[in-house]
UniProtKB/TrEMBL annotation:
It holds the Pfam family DAC. This is Diadenylate cyclase. Residues 283-292 have a biased composition (Basic and acidic residues). It comes from Anaeromyxobacter oryzae. PANTHER family: DIADENYLATE CYCLASE (PTHR34185:SF1). Keywords: ATP-binding, Cell membrane, Membrane, Nucleotide-binding, Nucleotidyltransferase, Transferase, Transmembrane, Transmembrane helix. Catalyzes the condensation of 2 ATP molecules into cyclic di-AMP (c-di-AMP), a second messenger used to regulate differing processes in different bacteria. Its EC number is 2.7.7.85.
Length: 292
């Protein structure tokens, strides 16, 4: 043990140095772990992978003395960090700019267009879900928030259609070829249907099957809101931030989605969800996270 310490930290290493080194490595590992968890399943992963390859090429070019190439790659790396941040946080930046520009007429018009589009999408999802519940037709509708859902969209069939209650009902009504899987709403449009969601590994009430597990699975990983219509019970639920808000009526669903997508306040949304007749089911995984 002492030899290993000497080998790793040098001949003058004390026990305090060893403890410091362990804390150092522990903190860095924890930060890397949190970063990887944060970007898991997002567009940051391929971007990070691409940057690692460019970094590798830069190191090789430097070590064998390719001056021009290493200069080019070095500059590319420093600028791509800035572009990477812009790509990853584009929706937050857009929101912040729209917020900033409330005073300017041009941006205010843009913000009010976006608000009207979101209002229309929320109305379509609410009416569609209520009609599907009345018909006892099962459905899963994912509404994108800040985390990009292009990976989920890629697992289904791209539609990019104007969203309406009628379209949602016809997508989920069997024998439509798209009734299996989830529909995804991006930028107030129906981006795709027949999409595959990750299943939650958490313990859920026995009466909930794979449709609800799939909704929770996505809501545990990203900040999307997932509307679930149960085929068996005709019940409408929303999976959000790893919780399932169950048995929502039309008013409850509308208030929750309105708070998330139209007024845009997370606190409003929690209040809307918490104050409803429907109860929130905390999943096993979330329960243990909260206990930590
Ligand atoms: N990983 C998944 N991604 C997207 N959709 C899924 C996934 N797994 C299951 N589904 C959808 O859920 C349907 C199966 O629902 P199941 O009856 O098992 O769930 P449930 O939660 O009990 O819902 P219900 O109350 O409607 O019966 C599948 O036909 C499919 O449309």
């Amino acid at each position: 043990m002492h030899r290993a310490l000497v080998y790793l930290l040098g001949p003058d290493a004390t026990l305090a140095d060893a403890v410091l080194a362990v804390v150092d490595v522990g903190v860095v590992s924890f930060l890397v772990y949190r970063l990887l968890r944060l970007i898991r399943g997002t567009r940051a992963v391929p971007i990070l992978f691409g940057l690692c390859l460019v970094g590798l090429a830069y190191v090789v070019a430097r070590s064998i003395g390719l001056e021009t190439l290493s200069w080019l790659l070095g500059h590319f790396l420093s600028y791509s960090f800035i572009f990477g941040v812009i790509v990853l946080f584009q929706s937050d930046i857009r929101r912040a700019l729209a917020e900033l520009g409330r005073g300017s007429r041009l941006l205010a018009a843009f913000a009010s267009d976006e608000r009207a589009a979101q209002l229309g999408a929320v109305d379509a999802v609410v009416k569609g879900a209520v009609e599907l519940a009345r018909r006892r037709v099962g459905a899963l509708v994912v509404l994108e928030r800040t985390a990009d859902l292009s990976d989920v969209v890629d697992t289904g069939l791209r539609l990019d259609a104007a969203i309406s209650p009628e379209l949602l009902v016809s997508v989920f009504q069997p024998p439509s070829p798209l009734h299996d899987g989830a529909a995804v709403v991006q930028n107030a449009r129906l981006a795709a249907a027949g999409c595959l969601l990750p299943l939650s590994a958490a313990s859920t009430p026995q009466e909930l099957g794979t449709r609800h597990r799939a909704a929770l699975g996505l809501a545990e990983e990203v900040d999307a809101a997932v509307v679930v219509v149960s085929e068996e019970r005709g019940e409408i639920s929303v999976a959000l931030d790893g919780r399932l808000h169950r048995a929502l009526d039309e008013k409850g669903l509308r208030t929750l989605l309105h708070a998330l997508f139209v007024t845009g306040g997370r606190a409003d949304a929690s209040a809307a969800a918490g104050g409803r007749a429907g109860s929130a089911t905390r999943t096993g995984r979330e329960g243990s996270r909260a206990a930590l």
